[in-house]
Amino acid sequence: MRTVGICIVGLAWCACSSPAGTIDVTLGGETDTLTRGPAVASLDVEAVERNGTHHAILTATLPITTLDLGDLSQTLVASIQLTGKDSSGNAVVFGATPYIELGAISGGDIPLFIQRKGTLARMPGALSDSRSTPLVTTLHRGIYMAGGGQTTLVGYDLLYLSDFGASCATPSDATSFAFVQLAQTNEDGDLAVAYAIDSTGMTRVGGVTCSNFTNFLLPTGTTWPDIAGGATVNGDDGSAYVVGPSTVLKLDTSEAFDVFGPFESRQGPAVAWAPGRGIFVYGGGKGAVIISATGALSSFTYPDEPTPSLAAIAFDANKTMLVAGDMASPRTIDLTCSSACTPTPWGEALPFALLTSSLFSVGTMTFLLVGDDVAGTTHVFLLDASKTTELKLNIARSGARAVQTETGEVIIMGGGNATPESFWL
């Protein structure tokens, strides 16, 4: 049996001393997470594997003292997840660690941030800077930020809920950014590498060593302005795809790259990964297309969409995409349509258009939209089939950007404040 102390930081109940280690449950910047009505009456704690297998660890009413991992293997890779329920059994609080080998908990302190479900909350710790309009991406354990007029790559550690404490040099005018988990450690000792792209070239940066390489040559007929400024989409196989105005750059897990295109030029299209199909591209002056993982192009008969800076995401597991961000209703795009295709309105329109936007799936047919209005102020909207609801940021931001972690949490970064903000439905 492996007993690990559990502690809620800043509260009266706490029993954290255990030679095996401690899980410190923290409330970040929201002091009333447990007491806000309806108050938390009980806790469920479990270890959840990447394949969805759940291992119950603890169900208890407050207060509790120790968290016993029971017979779970220390080599099990799982996320420790805590659900707080009110007196009626409704889940009102949630938090999760990134996926880790459980043996890593032994002998150390692992923080677990919990927050009220359905609201935004200030997280513990802060990044080393608060840049606006950053380029952001995430890997299993961290969120990384480049661009935004800065010359450094900085990161937030999702395990220890703090800045990584180190930065790497990147081009100050990087307009596209990707991070790739490698299939094996490279000769520099890095298991992940970042790519920062501008109109003059691409810089590869070692995720740990900060090793730097810039001598990338494109095929004849392709230039960096054909790629720079494009959004990044992550594929099913771990590859990253930078979707430029007319060309797609594929960055794979072996540090090789490929170039697809040129395709019809677009300005600010919505891009997203379509499961089992490839890169979905829509708008920016053209209709809908799919670009496969090998560069094959499939077109549809949807009318041209002139609006730039829309957001897109997979609406279901195999055939439909959702597009939103302007003052029209969000709409679905059916990828099985073969002729005379038209988008299908879904949900309720936004009260105003966003000039930049990102969509995230946060529940069954429920989505989070994050973007900036015409003045640059960042807004967050919760979308479902019946309504669109604006959620209030705890910290006013301008030019903030958002990412979604492997465990489903949406985190908002930068925009004039170094403290991240988090959302769970």
Cα shape: globular
**DSSP strand content:** 35-45%
Structural class, from secondary structure content?
mainly beta
Query: What is the terminal-to-terminal distance?
Result: 33 Å
Proportion of helical residues: under 10%
Low-confidence stretches: 1-5, 8-19
Radius of gyration over C-alpha positions, nearest whole angstrom: 22 Å
- Structure annotation, total helices: 0
Described by strand count, sense and barrel closure, the largest sheet is:
10 strands, mixed
Average pLDDT rating: 91
The count of DSSP E runs of length 2 or more, i.e. the number of strands, is 39
Summarize the structure.
The chain is mainly beta and 425 residues long. The protein has no helices and 39 strands. Helix content is 0%, strand content 45%.
Keywords:
single chain; 425 residues; mainly beta; 10-stranded mixed sheet; 5-stranded antiparallel sheet; 39 strands; 45% strand; globular
Explained architecture:
The structure is a single chain. The protein is an all-beta fold and 425 residues long. Helix content is 0%, strand content 45%. The strands form 8 sheets. Strands 1, 2, 3, 4, 5, 6, 7, 8, 9 and 10 form a 10-stranded mixed beta sheet that branches. Strands 12, 13, 14, 15 and 16 form a 5-stranded antiparallel beta sheet that branches. The radius of gyration is 22 Å and the shape is globular. The two termini are 33 Å apart. Residues 1-5 and 8-19 have low confidence and may be disordered.
